[in-house]
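Recap quiz, item 2
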Amino acid sequence: GESVGLHLPTLSVQEGDNSIINCAYSNSASDYFIWYKQESGKGPQFIIDIRSNMDKRQGQRVTVLLNKTVKHLSLQIAATQPGDSAVYFCADVFSGSARQLTFGSGTQLTVLP
Amino acid sequence: KAGVTQTPRYLIKTRGQQVTLSCSPISGHRSVSWYQQTPGQGLQFLFEYFSETQRNKGNFPGRFSGRQFSNSRSEMNVSTLELGDSALYLCASSLTPGRDEKLFFGSGTQLSVL
């Protein structure tokens, strides 16, 4: 079946450094991608999204890059803060389908003081 | 504005029993989706409801069912519980089921099957 996977299960960064979280997807028909953040004891929280007609989108301290050629997207967090410690998921939606998000396995980001 | 509310927060059941989980979406949201989260399988789509109709269903056995009421509140039911049903069940709501509509998740119901 189709899958959206993450390259690294854990990532530790120093406070103030930039973080990069990667995600690979397998369905070439996916045309909408979302990053979620999940803190302990809470549900996933929307961070940023990107459509397949874009290759970059910026938000507040976050940037998502999409490379459709290699079916890869990344989430960049600038000046990582302790509050950024969480599990980050990417998700994709197949074009032409009713909405059904396929989530990756998640990356645990730990921000070190 | 209150977020997505799921009840109960924790639930312990034994094999063979059935369970009903409840979800109240954000006020004005008419679409409700359910996801199962486990350490091994991650987040998996269960089903989505809009205007009291199931629009989409994931790859789960028929023991998993749901419904939506006229006030958009939703319930999901799992019958004949198995140990593997232990998971965090997440409900998410959005204004409509549009593909680009942002999903807002609740904090989930942690189900433990003994």
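Chain A has a mean pLDDT of 88.
Residues 34 and 49 of chain A are 4 Å apart (CA to CA).
End of item.
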